[in-house]
Sequence to fold (253 residues):
Amino acid sequence: MKNNYALFALAVTAGLASAATYAGGLHEGGIQAPKNATNTTASSSAFDIVHAKITTENKIATFHMAVAANAGISKPTAIGGLAGSDVYSYVWPTSLNSSSVGFEANAGILALAVTSHPNFDDTPLYDENSDGNTTNDGDVWHSHWVVLQPNEACGPGALGVVDIAADSQPQLPKTWPGLPILIDSPGWNPTFNAETVEVRVAFDNIASLEEASYDGVTAALRVNQSVHAPLLCVVDVKDVASGDLSLPGKVNQ
Fold:
């Protein structure tokens, strides 16, 4: 599996630092990463990871990520349709088995993602912006579980969210949003505060997470122009906390 993560980090050269300091102070534990001196704009700083961490208390896990500045300030441009649209994301790839959140076992790389995409809505059960309509909230930052696999159709060495074949009926979480990909919309609301983003997630079996490893990634994904397999590809890895997606993070450390 480690080699698959290395594919995802193609062309990413950021290193692993022993500590990271910035305006918000020192984040202890987890994965510490250096601030990129070339990221000087608000948009670039918003995806420049300096810290990633997962901690647990009782059956609640907190997924934490800190960037150089302005977490969540940058969102994709609205183009008025699904085809060819972009998804911006803060992602925690994990070693968890996909079955731990309701997908088929061993389906691919399970990751928690906080995403924004103004051109479509994939959380039909939730009203993120509290306007009484659950179908127009794609631009509001929200969370997903996604299952990733290397997919050459997305580009050499690139990953895509796993497609669901038309004639297949894989096991899916109860909050699967109906898209033909391995994605879940569980409704865990992310919280942004200056340079940080956090998501609190409940687990029936928290022990499985506490034994897992993880990394932190910021990335852009894109919907295929034909809205067909592959539906959603990773097209721009902006930063990787470890530098090489080796999943060095240990929960509660």
Q: What stands out?
A: Residues 2-34+41-250 form one domain. DSSP finds three helices and 16 strands in the chain. Confidence is low (pLDDT under 50) at residues 1-25.
